Amino acid sequence: MRVTETPNAVMTTYASPTLGSARLSVWRVEMKATAQGPVHVVDSEQVWTGLSGRATISVGGVERELLEGTAVVVPEGVERQVTATGDFTAIVSGYGHAKVSVPGEDADRGTPPWMS
């Protein structure tokens, strides 16, 4: 298990290529109410499953509400942004080799530490 803190969230990685998985990653995201991640693009699919609280995930400009017990599939290559509308916890699964980019920036940001 590995914990990574950003200004917007705390990610706890349970499985990833650096933690024994060949390709997949699973991590928990915890966000405080009103926290908002940056608009970004991931080059592979992710599945977000709400554990507690609520958040809004903008996927390609369409807002989806993520509540306890619901899931949102976020396709590869689509702009996304997560905003906690209350204290929020989710489990996320995706590929450990995923690369992240931010619209308007020339360089990709590589693989976030909670995915690798």
Question: What's the short story on this structure?
Answer:
The chain is mainly β. The chain contains no helices and eleven strands. It has a single domain, classed as Jelly Rolls (Sandwich), CATH 2.60.120.10.
Q: Could you walk me through the main structural features you see in this protein, from its secondary elements to its overall organization?
A:
- By secondary structure, the protein is an all-beta fold.
- It is 0% helix and 52% strand.
- It contains no helices and 11 strands.
- It has strands at 2-5, 10-15, 24-31, 40-42, 46-52, 54-59, 62-67, 71-74, 79-84, 88-95, 100-101.
- The strands form 2 sheets. Strands 1-2-3-10-5-8 form a 6-stranded antiparallel beta sheet, with no helix packed on it.
- A hairpin with an 8-residue loop joins strand 2 (10-15) and strand 3 (24-31).
